[in-house]
Write a structure and sequence with these properties.
mainly beta, 11-stranded antiparallel β-sheet, 74% strand
Length: 200
């Protein structure tokens, strides 16, 4: 079972984005996928190309070894290209992350976040999308030196085809990577999926 919802509200200077996702799969009596995620990201466009962002995020993925993970981040972003055919924006800022692992332990660390959002309207009805988010945790709770204690990378590449004004089909490839997963957990998770998306 997979369900996802994205709500965007655009104003003159402010943009608000809410994303919810549930991905659960059970086969032959065992759970093979159990991912839940929710995020809220406000953006303030205070210059033609420069924006400030905030991000609050919750994740749960027992297969990758954590029962809950909370992240908050804030920083600056830059719209490198912004036209109807091509859009590219980058963002970066400090972050703070709290992780509760499935073995009962927990960790809270200062981190750094880097994100990339790329959209290319290849043809009238065909669009290529690329979203990348990397979050690097520090090895100690009170220092901003990134020493590779854990780095998380989420990468989603999608190819969207407009079936109608409100309906589109998507072929996507997703990679989730944790450089230091708990013992017995997978560090890299990949998924290829074909979906139908309805916009309202």
């Amino acid at each position: 079972m997979v369900a996802a919802l994205r709500l965007d509200r655009e104003g003159i200077d402010w943009t608000h984005s809410i994303r919810l996702r549930a991905d659960y799969q059970r086969q032959n009596g065992s759970t093979s996928r159990e991912q839940f995620a929710a995020s809220y990201e406000p953006r303030w466009q205070f210059d033609e190309n420069i924006f400030a962002y905030g991000l609050a995020q919750y994740e749960r993925d027992r297969i990758q070894g954590f029962s809950s993970r909370y992240s908050v981040s804030g920083g600056l972003g830059y719209r490198v290209v912004d036209n109807p055919e091509l859009k590219l924006s980058l963002k970066a800022g400090p972050a703070y992350r709290v992780t509760d692992f499935t073995d009962g332990t927990s960790a809270d660390r200062i981190a750094g976040l880097v994100g990339l959002d790329f959209d290319w309207q290849v043809l009238d009805r065909l669009k290529l999308t690329q979203d990348v988010e990397a979050l690097a945790e520090t090895g100690a709770e009170a220092t901003l030196i990134f020493d590779g204690a854990n780095t998380t990378i989420n990468l989603v590449t999608g190819l969207d085809f407009d079936v109608s004004n409100r309906l589109r089909s998507r072929l996507s490839y997703k990679v989730e990577y944790d450089s230091n997963p708990p013992a017995g957990s997978e560090g890299t998770d990949t998924l290829t999926r074909a979906t139908l998306i309805y916009g309202f």
